[in-house]
Amino acid sequence: MPEQTIIQTSEVRKVYGMGEISVAALDGVSISIQEGEFVAIMGPSGSGKSTLMNILGCLDRPTDGHYILDDEDVSDLDKTELAAIRSRQIGFIFQSYNLLSRTTALDNVKLPLIYNRDNKVSPEERVEIARRKLEAVGLGDRAHHQPHELSGGQQQRVAIARALVNDPVLILADEPTGNLDTRSGEDIMNLLHELHEDGRTIVMVTHDHEIAEHTQRTIHLRDGKVEKVIKNGKKHAPRNRKGGSK
Amino acid sequence: MSPSEFLRVAWESIYRNKTRSLLTMLGIIIGVAAVIIMIGISAGTEAAIEEEITGLGTNLVFVNSTFSRGGSGGGTSGMTGGLVYDDGFAIADEVIGVAGVTIEQGSTATIKASGVVLEGVSILGTTPDFPSVRDIELDTGRYFKQQEVDQKQKIAVLGSSLAEELFGDDDPIGQVITVDTTKLTVIGVFEEKGMVGDVDYDNRLYLPITVVFQKFTPSQFAKFRGDRVRVIYVEVDADANLDDVILQIELLLAKRHDVSLESPDFSVTTQQDIIKTQEATTAAFRSLLAWVAGVSLIVGGIGIMNIMLVSVTERTREIGIRQSVGATPNDIRWQFLTEALLLSLVGGLIGVFVGVGGAWLFGWASDMRTVIIPSSILLAFVSAAVVGAFFGFYPANKAAQLDPIEALRHQ
Question: Model pTM?
Answer without folding.
Answer: 0.71
